[in-house]
Amino acid sequence: MKANGPTAPRLRRDTALRRVAREARPFLRARTGAVLRLAGWSLLEFAQTFLSGYGVARALDDGFLAGRPATGLLWLAVAAVAVLPSVLAARGVFGRLADLVEPLRDGLVRRAVSRALGGALGRSGDVSTRSLSQVTHQSEIARDGWAGLVLTLRSFAFTAAGAVTGLLALAPALLLIVLPPLAVGAALFLATLPPMAARQRAYLAADEAYAAHAGELAASVRDIAAAGTAGRTVAESEALAETQLAASRSLARWSAVRVLALAVCGRFPPLLLLLAAPWLLRNGLTAGALVGALTYLTQALAPAVQALMTMLGTAGGRLVVVLDRFTDAPPPPEDDPPQAVRDSAPPPPEDDQPQAVRDSAPQQADETTRPAVPAPVTATSPSPRRAPAPVAELHEVTFAYGPRARPVLDRLSLTIAPGEHLAVVGPSGSGKSTLAAVLAGVEPPTGGAVRWRGRPVRAADATSVRVLLPQHAYVFSGSLRDNLRYLRPDARDRAIADAAEAIGLEPLLSRLGSLDADVVPDRLSQGERQLVALGRAYLAAPPLLILDEATSRLDPAAETRAELACAALPGALVVVAHRLSSARRAGRTLVMDGPHTRCGTPAELLRSSALYRDLAGLWEPEDEDARGGGPVPDAPDAAAVAGRLGTVGTGQDASIGSGDEERGVRSSPPPSPV
After folding, report:
1. Which residue would you say has higher pLDDT here, 39 or 400?
2. Cis bond before residue 669 (omega within 30° of 0)
3. Residue 494 to residue 499: CA distance in whole angstroms
4. At the N or C end, where does the chain have fewer CB atoms within 10 A?
5. 3-class SS at 164?
6. Tens digits of per-residue pLDDT, 570-591?
7. DSSP label at 521?
8. Using CA atoms, how far apart are residues 655 and 665, in angstroms rounded to an integer?
C-alpha cells in the first residue's frame, strides 16, 4: 500500500527507528558492562539531587523553624557537600561515555569503508562519494549526537529518580500535584515527534531543492540569459521558494506546540504547587516540605525535562536520520552504459571565453520546411537583386573585460546574411568565445553596436533570433523527448525523429530505447550531451545558430554530420571551430588573433593571413610584409592549396575594423606578427 500525504514521512520515520533500534540492541548488549559502570557513577548525581531538596526541607522544619539554627546549618551543609561527589563523578561519567561512543564511530567508519570498497569492486554507482561523506562528516555527527543523547538520558533518568524519591520522602501528596502536568507535557511532546519529523523532512527536502536550484542558477546566469528563459527560471525559483516557505511555516507551527509542551512540563508544576500550597498546608504539609518540593521542581526536574526534550527534538532526530544512512542496504551494482559517441577528438585548448551559454531559439511550427537529411551548403555569388536583410551585424564593436583591460574585440564590423555559414578560428585566447557571446547578445559590447535583423539587440528578441550552444551542453533529468523539445514544446514526433536522424542521435536513442526513456545526465558522455543539445537546436531551427565549440567532444565523422545538418537549416550558422575541418566546410572564415582579424574564403585567407596558413599546417618563416598582410614571398599557390583543403564556395563581403582595404576586408590596426 502506497502512503500518500503527511503519513508518508511518518511511515519512513517509523521504519528508520525500527532499523536503528534493530542495530542498536546488539551493540548495547555487547557493552552492558560499560552501561552499568556509567549508571554506577550516575548514582552520585541521584544522591546529590535527592539531598538538595530534602536537605532544604529538613533545614527549615528541623532547624530554623524549630528554633535550632545549628541543625538547620548542618542540613544545609549536607546539601552543599552532596554537590562535590557529583562534580568528581563527571570524570568517571565521561570515561565510561567514551566506552560507548568511540566504538560506535569506529563501527560506522568500518561499515562505510567496507561499503565503499564493495561498491568500487561491484561498480555500484556513486557509492564512493556517499561513503566519503559518511567517513568524514556523518560519522562525526553520529558520534556527537550519540554522546549528547547518552549524557542527557542519563542525567534525566537519575535526576528525575532523585527528585521523585525526594518528593515521596517529603510528602506523597506532592506527587498528585506535580506528576499530572509532567505527564501531560510529556504526552504532548511525544505527540509532536511524528509530525515534527515529517515537517522537518519536508523542510529539508525543500531547502535542498532550492539550494540545488540556486547553485545551478549561480553557475548559469549567462546561460539563462542566452536561452531567454529568465521568466521560466523566475517562476521556478518562486515556486521552490513558496514550497520552502510553506514547509518552514508548518515546521514553525509545530515548534510552537513543542514550546507549549516544554512550558507545561517546566512551568506548570511549580505554579500548580504554589496554587495548591494553602490546601496542602491545611492538610499537614510542612513549610519545609513545600520549599523542598519547589527546590526539586525548579533546580532539578524542570531543567532535566527541558534538556531531554530539546535533545530529543533536535539532535535525536538528526541522529536517527544519520544512523539510518548507515543501516540501509547499499545500492545494487549497475553496468556501465555503452558510449554511443566516442570522444576521440582531443579536448579544445582553454580559450578566453566567458561563461558557457545555453541555447535559445524560436519555436517554429512549420515542420515541413526542415529537410530530413542534411545536404552540403555552397555559398553563391551575390545576386544583382536586392540582398535580404542581414540576420546579425556588428558595427565597430569593441569589447574589453574591464575599464583598463586590453580590448578583446577592437572596432570589429561583421555582417552575417541569412543562410550563411561562417567559421571562426584562431588560437586559444584570441576572443572567439567572446565574439560568440557578443554576437548572441549575452555580453553587451563596450563600444559599437550589435543588430539583429536591422534592429538593436533586445533581450525580448533573443528567443526569436538566435540559439547559442556552448562547449558544455545543457542536459537535464527527464525524458529524451523533453530534452529535445526544450526550445520547441509543440514539436511532433515526426519532427523529433527527423532531427535525431539528421544530427546522429540514433545510437543514443537505440541505447535508451525510446524518446520517453529517462535521461540521467551523469550517465551520458560529453559527446552524447552535445548531440542532445545539437538536436534541440536543430529542432528549433533559429534564424541564427551559433556553435561555440559545441562539437568539441564528437569524433570527426559525427562532427561533420552534425555541422552539415545545422548548415542545411534555413538560418545562418556561425561555428567557433576547434578543428580546421569546420572552417573548410564554411563558405566564409573569420580568423581571430585578439583584436587583429582577417575574413574571407579559404583561398583568400591563404594569400592574406599567415595565421591561417599556420593553422592549416602550412607554416613558413615570415618577413615584415607577410606580417602586415601583404604579399608573401614564395607563398604556395592559393588555388592549389585551397583545393587540397576542400574549399566550399565563395565568401561574402565583410568589413573588419578600418584601414587598408581588400575585397570585403578592412583591418585596423595592421595585424601583429603571428
Report:
1. 400
2. yes
3. 9
4. N
5. helix
6. 999 999 987 888 888 888 999 9
7. G
8. 5
Which residue, among 233, 238, 216, 213, has the nearest Cα to 486 in the 3D structure? 233
pLDDT score recorded for residue 180: 87
Instruction: Specify the pLDDT at position 120.
Output: 55
Quick one: cell of 636?
A: 604556395
User: Considering the entire predicted model, what is its pTM?
Assistant: 0.44
Yes or no: say if 583 and 589 are a contact pair by the CB < 8 Å rule: yes
pLDDT tens profile 88-143: 677 677 767 778 788 877 777 777 776 666 655 554 444 444 555 555 567 777 77
Q: 665-667 and 544-548: which strand pairing?
A: unpaired
The more confidently predicted of residues 31 and 470 is: 470
Q: Are 553 and 527 in contact (CB under 8 A)?
A: yes
Provide the CB-side half-sphere exposure for 594 (13 A, CA): 12
Residue 286: phi and psi, rounded to 5, are -85, 160
CA distance 253 to 668: 69
Which residue's C-alpha cell is 556552448?
Answer: 470
Q: What are phi and psi of 574, to 5 degrees?
A: -120, 120
DSSP letter assigned to residue 619: -
Q: Is residue 284 left, alpha or beta, with left meaning phi > 0 and alpha meaning psi from -120 to 50?
A: left
Identify the residue whose cell numbers are 536517527.
Answer: 320
Tell me the range of 317-331, 544-558, 631-645 where mean pLDDT is highest: 544-558
End-to-end CA distance of the chain: 72
**List of E strands, 392-496:** 392-399, 409-416, 421-425, 447-452, 455-456, 466-469, 478-479
Query: Which amino acid, 645?
Result: L
